[in-house]
Design a protein that fits this description.
Two copies of one chain form a homodimer.
Chain A lengths: L1 H23 L5 H39 L2 H35 L4 H34 L5 H37 L12 H39 L1 H29 L5 H26 L3 H24 L2 H9 L5 H47 L2 H23 L4 H43 L10 H42 L12 H15 L1 H56 L9 H43 L1
């Protein structure tokens, strides 16, 4: 664990340098600075209010754990929550400052703008991984008990749930609301300052795609490392434990190198997609090389093989996701728009469902091979492998919303159209990386859930199950239902909050004279408040569901029922998440494809049909789909904690 | 089994009387007779071509089984297929003759029309249940081995797959194609004879909703009885066996009484919904009463309890389905149409997903209680209970398409608008019974799959599973993916076939002068051929998938992998099927609600938005959703057969 501290310290220094470098840059003229500040404040106020909702929950849980497990468990839980909150808060603070700076850098060159926006993303990516391992080390030093790290992981999961669900509802309520009135009724272009919800929309990109995504992957990262450490120690002792630590360190240091390389190449870059891809692959190759050398030296090559499967399958899932959400597949989908919106929805749904096939087989392949080589430890370690370069992959992912925000600020501040062109080209790359990031988040969540399940089954004392015991099947049936029900809840939440938003926008346009002519400023704050309120109100029931269901099933059907619950929830959750993410991504890009002038271009019948697809895809890919990742991980970690408590 | 023969014989006599009574009725004037004949021929030619595709498959399988199991297995398989085919063929022959007769009866009174259309449905409902038990008895007498009945069940499953998938693709390709060009482009009303695809659309109702649904429930009926007989004999010997036989007989005889009661009340009926509901509930109450008396006499009241749970939960699932696809829920859904099609899709999706919650808990409740009382046998027997009154519930279900067809014929033949009013009111009731029928089909498929799984686990020799063996989870992951992939295949198939249909309709309108003015007759046959070809081409891959996946998993991961596969497929399949059926049903009725004059009525912005929902819902509820029922049952029965073969 001392290695975690040293690596963490190096990384912290690096993060601080990056952050200062970003803050040194000019945030532009008065208007861009002001816009950036409004977004900062909106995002900050959302996070603070979100904390107000879940801090009491966390503290209540900590007190509960204090009485039934002990003080160490409470502390571990609090460390897990606090570090995840810290990562989210700090990462977002920088991201919301990098947006105007990216817009201003874009007045100079594409390379400058790429450099600033990617630096902003890198702060988020590195902070998540660094605090992830530092918190883990701290928990270990405080508790001196590997198994208590499960409470650390539980804390991280809790934060992730609120951040992902709350952020997801916020971002889509604002987006859908802004689109419906702004684009459809008042005929305003995207990011027009006359649209009262325009700032809320930009805030949403940050709280959803930056803070939400970060908390999600923080949880996966921590959960997979925790599982691998426990299973490694269990089956291979010290040797297993230390191997996990090294793989994690190799991944983080390689990410640092990859980020530096990317930044060095960014300024002269003419092709942002290529630059980002190079950095990511380079970091992956470095990690694998280091792991190979390590396994060779300790004469345990199996470590390398398993990590290789994880890295490789993670990469393949990204590529498959790209294949399904761009190019030929999207062109075919766009073509159906000439027949009408219903055809777009049917074809897009079929596309997303079809994509579950290869991705599932890839995940299965990684699991089978890893299991054959290193048993359950192998399954967990391949998950660690897949997530090892999280530092850079999350950076690439978080860069997207910053570029998107920069475009919005450029538009609202009335900068030279050339600036918007640059930010648009960055944003387009961001859309692809976002789709790949979602595939990666799902794949890693699936592997993490599997690793946690392996952990659960190792400690649940149900090594021998009668397959004809129907409680396994019943647990699976109820578990399989939860992702569907959970998605219904989040979709309803987006719908309700969007409705409130639409009403508010309509009210402002009607009651505040001169909004549409640009003579008076809309009340941005009011829209931010509505999105915040809508999101906070609706994130409690899903959280309760995720915690209560394993507990209830345990008392009804025993550990075997909980095992079934986890299997069912993971299976149907992974499929639903893949389907929703890829359908949503494909619809988004089909709309863009038509907007490029195909099948009649903007304003045509085909365009309107693809807008319907895109609007349906919004909650699919940005709210319900990603929230499922958390649901299955939180249920798994809750089950593990439950088992350790019940065993006493 | 001799009881099956006696009851079957009584029922056959009754069916023949019913059939002759229908054929005695006038098929109306020259035009209605002619239209009915075209539909008959279209449906018949589709079935014959369908048989051409799957007879070779069945025979190949029979020969294969002859070599590795023996002649008895082959014969059982052939009996299962032949009896299912016979039931579908005969039931549809009568249904397609009852349509014009219903239209003509509607010129007299609502009661007459209800009587004829329900008689047509009753022939289908009774034929399916009667041939189901007669085939079972025959198989038993030929093989003298209870376990070989699994091959009988496999034969029925095969036919069901082709009938449901093929019929589902056919009906929606014709429907969607006819709607897109007819309603949207050429502004023709529903069922207008100038629409070249109008006959194909009417044929589709029969091959999809009559023959397809019949084969689906034939499979469930046979599968649940088979499982209950095997498990009953295994755990309780002769006593268990005979109890199942009696419950089945009580159900069938009660259905007969229920049908007679309904027919007696039909002629004077002013409220068809009430009349049908009364008959169904009456049959259920009779079955329960008879079962109670029987269990009391043999001093084994547990039989009654378990059957009661099955009947009761089956009824509740129907009511919940009705609740989600009508009334307040649908009005709220219709209200979102004022915001546009995307909101209709999102809200409808959320509605369908939400509906999985209660239905899953109800199924779980029935299983838990039955298991507590009678173990695995209880689970299977409650499935038999749910399906015991299939005779009348399928009659109510099959009556819908007949009334729908009658309306089409009345419209095309230019009968008095009052006739159409009567058939429309019958059709409206049919839509609700169809939605409830779908809920029932899913619920019973879930219980049948569970019963088959119990059967599988009892013979698979994996009574002791290590929960940490990842092959269980992997199997579940792959199994959970299949319903999604399967749905993608069937949705693509509908899309492709509908595209071909659209092109053909456009071609005819362009090339045959006078079609739109009604001066010349369109080439109906050509459209029928296109729908047939589209359906037949696309039903092979899904079938292969359902058979190969358990076999492959067995060789890769052993029986535990197959167990996981069944759990995963059932869990995600049931959820997907419930979601698709209820979203589809709600969209359909939301459109009708707007058409009644709400939110602007026909032709309004809101109406167009609900039409999008309805069109998306078509393949959801009539092709992909129902096909999943078959997939999970066929996989389960294939696994059982596989186990008996492997055990030697």
């Amino acid at each position: 664990m001392v290695y975690f501290l040293i690596t963490g310290a190096i990384s912290v220094v690096f993060i601080l340098i990056l952050a200062f470098k970003i803050l040194e840059k000019s945030s532009g003229n008065e208007r861009t600075t002001q816009l950036s500040e409004i977004i900062q404040k909106g995002a900050k106020s959302f996070l603070l209010q979100e904390y107000k909702v879940f801090f009491p929950v966390i503290f209540a849980l900590a007190i509960f754990l204090y009485f039934i497990v002990g003080i160490k468990a409470s502390i571990a839980l609090l460390i897990g929550s606090a570090f995840s909150v810290l990562a989210g808060y700090f990462g977002m603070a920088i991201a919301t400052r990098a947006n105007a700076r990216t817009a201003w850098a874009a007045t100079k060159s594409l390379g400058e703008a790429l450099s600033v926006s990617f630096s902003g993303g890198a702060v988020m990516g590195l902070t998540v991984s660094t605090l992830g391992i530092l918190g883990l080390a701290l928990t270990y030093y405080v508790t001196k008990d590997i198994e208590l790290i499960s409470y650390y992981s539980l804390g991280a999961s809790f934060v992730a749930l609120f951040a992902r669900v709350g952020g997801g509802i916020y971002t889509k309520a604002a987006d859908v609301g802004a689109d419906i009135v702004g684009k459809t009724e008042a005929n305003l272009p995207e990011d027009d300052p006359r649209n009262p919800a325009v700032i809320a929309d930009n805030v949403g990109d940050n709280v959803g795609d930056v803070a939400g995504m970060g908390a999600d992957l923080y949880e996966s990262y921590v959960g997979s490392i925790f599982s691998a450490i426990v299973l490694g120690s269990l089956f291979f002792g010290e040797k297993g434990f230390i191997s996990v630590v090294f793989v994690v360190i190799f991944g983080l240091l390689s990410s640092l190198v990859g980020i530096v390389t990317t930044l060095l190449r960014a300024k002269k870059s003419a092709d942002p997609a290529k630059t980002l891809r190079f950095g990511t692959i380079f970091a992956g190759v470095l990690t694998l090389t280091a792991t190979f050398v390590y396994s060779y030296l300790v004469n345990w090559l199996n470590i390398f093989y398993v990590v290789f499967f994880g890295v490789f399958v993670g990469l393949l899932i990204g590529l498959i996701t790209e294949w399904y959400t761009s190019g030929k597949k999207v062109e075919n989908l766009a073509k159906t728009s000439t027949m009408g919106p219903a055809n777009v929805i049917i074809s897009g749904t079929a596309l997303g469902m079809e994509s579950t096939f290869i991705i599932t087989l890839l995940i299965a392949l990684a699991v089978v091979l890893s299991y054959k080589i290193l048993g359950l430890f192998g399954v967990a370690l391949s998950g660690v492998g897949m997530l090892s370069t999280l530092g850079i992959s999350l950076s690439v992912d978080a860069y997207g919303p910053i570029a998107d925000n920069a475009g919005g600020i450029a538009q609202m501040a009335g900068l030279d159209p050339k600036v918007r062109e640059i930010t648009d080209s960055l944003d387009a790359v961001g859309n692809t990386t976002a789709a790949m990031g979602k595939g990666f988040a799902i794949g890693s969540a699936a592997l993490t859930a599997l690793a946690l399940f392996a952990n659960f089954s190792a400690i649940s004392n149900v090594s021998s199950v009668d397959l004809s015991n129907p409680y396994l099947f019943l647990g699976a049936l109820i578990g399989g239902m939860l992702p569907f029900f959970f998605s219904a809840l989040t979709m309803h939440a987006v719908g309700d909050a969007a409705d409130d938003m639409v009403e508010e926008i309509r009210r402002q346009i009607k009651e505040i004279p001169g909004i549409l002519s640009g003579e008076s400023t809309p009340d941005y704050q009011k829209c931010i408040q509505i999105a915040t309120k809508g999101a906070l109100k609706k994130m409690v029931l899903p959280a309760v569901l995720a915690i209560l269901s394993p507990t209830l099933l345990y008392f009804l059907f025993g550990p075997i029922g909980v095992g079934g619950l986890l299997i069912g929830a993971t299976v149907s959750g992974v499929m639903l998440a893949i389907f929703m993410a890829n359908s949503g991504g494909a619809w988004d890009n089909a709309k863009k494809f038509v907007e490029e002038g195909h099948f009649g271009g903007k304003g045509s019948f085909a365009h309107k049909a693809t807008v319907v697809g895109d609007t349906v895809g919004d909650p699919y890919k940005d709210t319900s789909g990603p929230s499922i990742n958390i649901l299955i991980k939180l249920m798994a970690i809750t089950s593990i904690v439950l088992m350790t408590i019940v065993r006493g």
